[in-house]
Design goal:
With 279 residues, the protein is an all-alpha fold. The protein has helices at 2-12, 14-31, 37-61, 63-69, 82-101, 105-125, 131-151, 158-178, 180-185, 191-195, 197-220, 226-247, 253-276. The protein has a single domain, classed as Tetracycline Repressor, domain 2 (Orthogonal Bundle). It contains 13 helices and no strands. Helix 2 (14-31) runs antiparallel to helix 3 (37-61) and helix 3 (37-61) runs antiparallel to helix 5 (82-101).
């Protein structure tokens, strides 16, 4: 029983779930800080449930690759069976849809779109060049469109959507570089395998430079004030520049993991910058 509970905690990736819930929280507050508390809590729970289901179904389809890249993950380690993982994912997805129904048809539509996307990504597109990375960026960004519908103000949701989309697209390519050994064994055709690590580096560089330029747009358009600019320059762009510098050094698993974590922190910091930009 202990092993199963430990496997369940591992497979949902609690830190990712917390980040997803915090992202939805920030998205709602950015769009409308006066959103009803009930709706805010429901939205956070939906975000956490969808993320839990996505992480679980991803491990279900990744079991052979994880035997090589991450043998301590719950499925290759035998803590959970593949059939149990499939049932757990179904439970999380069904629960997310049920709660989303209480938030209105627009919110239910976004969740109803996100779940098939994360499923198809894990089942089909994860091992393909470009498309898999794009789907992850899109589904992550949809969390902020979801937050905007809950808050009743979609106009404020587009900047965090674009920010999350680009930063997660870049992060997924970095993770693909890290996963090359196992992906090759599974005959996956991810971007760094199909086109080479150099091509992957160039695309990541273009995405992050574009993102740095994008962060200045809200200030230049007078959507956010100097406090936003200060926060985004110190909290976000410094991390993006660090990743760019690290990217063109000799790459090993530790450096790639560090870069991936830097982008995760940069995304959360970017949302904080957008939030304080309202002040």
């Amino acid at each position: 029983m202990k092993n199963r509970l430990f496997g369940l905690l591992q497979i949902i990736r609690p830190l990712n779930v917390i980040i997803a819930m915090a992202s939805v929280l920030l998205a709602v507050l950015i769009c409308n800080p006066h959103t009803r508390l009930r709706h805010l809590i429901l939205a956070m729970l939906v975000g956490g449930l969808v993320t839990s289901g996505a992480n679980t179904i991803n491990d279900y389809f990744d079991i052979e690759i994880d035997r090589i890249n991450r043998p301590r993950r719950p499925l290759p380690a035998g803590l959970l069976s593949p059939s149990a993982a499939r049932k757990i994912a179904f439970f999380f997805f069904t629960s997310a849809l049920t709660l989303a129904a209480f938030l209105g048809p627009e919110s239910l539509l976004i969740v109803g779109l996100s779940i098939p996307l994360v499923y198809v990504y894990s089942a089909v597109f994860k091992t393909t060049a470009v498309w898999g990375n794009l789907i992850v960026g899109l589904t992550t960004g949809l969390a902020f469109i979801f937050g905007g519908t809950v808050a009743g103000d979609l106009q404020q949701a587009w900047m965090p959507f674009l920010f999350a989309f680009v930063i997660n697209w870049a992060r997924e390519i970095i993770k693909d570089i890290e996963d090359i050994p196992g992906d090759r064994q599974a005959s996956a055709q991810t971007l760094p395998i199909r086109y080479g690590v150099s091509a992957a580096r160039r695309l990541i560089t273009a995405l992050l430079i574009g993102l740095i330029l994008l962060t200045a747009v809200p200030y230049l358009l007078d959507l956010y004030g100097r406090l936003y600019l200060l926060a985004v320059m110190t909290l976000v762009n410094s991390l993006l520049i660090t990743v760019l510098v690290e990217l063109w050094r000799e790459l090993d698993s530790r450096r790639l993991r560090r870069m991936s974590n830097c982008l995760k922190v940069a995304m959360f910091s970017g949302l904080v910058a957008l939030l304080v930009g309202h002040w």
